Amino acid sequence: MNESVIYEQIRKALADAPRNQYTAEMHLQMIKYADQLRSVTSKEFCEGVGLKPSFGTEFSKMRNLVERLKRAGLDTELL
Protein backbone atom coordinates (compact mmCIF):
# COMPACT_ATOMS: atom_id res chain seq x y z
CA MET A 1 0.00 0.00 0.00
CA ASN A 2 1.49 3.36 -0.95
CA GLU A 3 1.76 6.35 1.36
CA SER A 4 -1.09 8.36 -0.14
CA VAL A 5 -3.50 5.43 0.33
CA ILE A 6 -2.32 4.99 3.93
CA TYR A 7 -2.80 8.70 4.63
CA GLU A 8 -6.30 8.56 3.19
CA GLN A 9 -7.14 5.52 5.35
CA ILE A 10 -5.88 7.34 8.44
CA ARG A 11 -7.82 10.52 7.58
CA LYS A 12 -11.00 8.47 7.18
CA ALA A 13 -10.47 6.62 10.48
CA LEU A 14 -9.91 9.92 12.29
CA ALA A 15 -12.96 11.51 10.66
CA ASP A 16 -15.10 8.53 11.73
CA ALA A 17 -13.77 8.44 15.30
CA PRO A 18 -16.05 9.71 18.08
CA ARG A 19 -14.88 13.09 19.31
CA ASN A 20 -13.75 11.71 22.67
CA GLN A 21 -11.79 8.91 20.94
CA TYR A 22 -9.91 10.98 18.36
CA THR A 23 -6.52 10.85 20.06
CA ALA A 24 -6.79 7.14 20.82
CA GLU A 25 -7.71 6.45 17.19
CA MET A 26 -4.81 8.58 16.00
CA HIS A 27 -2.39 6.56 18.15
CA LEU A 28 -3.89 3.28 16.94
CA GLN A 29 -3.53 4.31 13.29
CA MET A 30 0.06 5.37 13.88
CA ILE A 31 0.83 1.96 15.37
CA LYS A 32 -1.09 0.12 12.66
CA TYR A 33 0.90 1.70 9.83
CA ALA A 34 4.26 2.15 11.59
CA ASP A 35 6.03 -0.51 9.53
CA GLN A 36 4.84 0.87 6.19
CA LEU A 37 5.78 4.41 7.24
CA ARG A 38 9.19 3.50 8.68
CA SER A 39 11.07 5.80 6.27
CA VAL A 40 8.66 8.74 6.65
CA THR A 41 9.62 11.65 8.88
CA SER A 42 7.20 12.89 11.49
CA LYS A 43 6.86 16.13 9.52
CA GLU A 44 5.98 14.22 6.33
CA PHE A 45 3.47 12.12 8.26
CA CYS A 46 1.70 15.16 9.68
CA GLU A 47 1.60 16.86 6.28
CA GLY A 48 0.31 13.68 4.63
CA VAL A 49 -2.50 13.15 7.12
CA GLY A 50 -3.25 16.84 7.58
CA LEU A 51 -2.32 17.04 11.25
CA LYS A 52 -0.70 19.93 13.07
CA PRO A 53 3.11 19.59 13.17
CA SER A 54 2.96 19.19 16.94
CA PHE A 55 1.53 15.68 16.41
CA GLY A 56 4.87 14.65 14.91
CA THR A 57 6.13 13.86 18.40
CA GLU A 58 3.23 11.46 18.90
CA PHE A 59 4.05 9.76 15.59
CA SER A 60 7.66 9.25 16.68
CA LYS A 61 6.56 7.87 20.05
CA MET A 62 4.13 5.39 18.50
CA ARG A 63 6.66 4.25 15.91
CA ASN A 64 9.17 3.58 18.68
CA LEU A 65 6.56 1.82 20.80
CA VAL A 66 5.42 -0.53 18.04
CA GLU A 67 8.61 -2.64 18.16
CA ARG A 68 8.07 -3.30 21.84
CA LEU A 69 4.42 -4.13 21.29
CA LYS A 70 5.31 -6.57 18.50
CA ARG A 71 7.85 -8.32 20.74
CA ALA A 72 5.02 -8.71 23.26
CA GLY A 73 2.85 -10.40 20.61
CA LEU A 74 0.98 -7.59 18.84
CA ASP A 75 0.16 -8.34 15.21
CA THR A 76 -0.33 -4.95 13.59
CA GLU A 77 -1.99 -6.67 10.62
CA LEU A 78 -4.98 -7.40 12.88
CA LEU A 79 -5.58 -3.74 13.78
Task: Give a description of the structure.
With 79 residues, this protein is an all-alpha fold. The chain has one domain. Helices cover 62% and strands 0% of the residues. The protein has four helices and no strands. The model has no long low-confidence stretch (mean pLDDT 96).
Instruction: Give a quick account of the main beta sheet: strands, pairing sense, barrel closure.
Output: none
Count of helix runs: 4
Q: Span between N and C termini?
A: 15 Å
Rg on CA atoms, Å: 12 Å
How much helical structure, as a percent, in the residues?
A: 55-70%
Strand coverage percent: under 5%
The gist of it:
This protein has 79 residues and is mainly α. It has helices spanning 3-16, 22-32, 42-49, 56-71.
Which key terms come to mind for this protein?
single chain, 79 residues, mainly alpha, globular
Question: What layout of secondary structure does this protein have?
Answer:
Elements: H1 3-16, H2 22-32, H3 42-49, H4 56-71
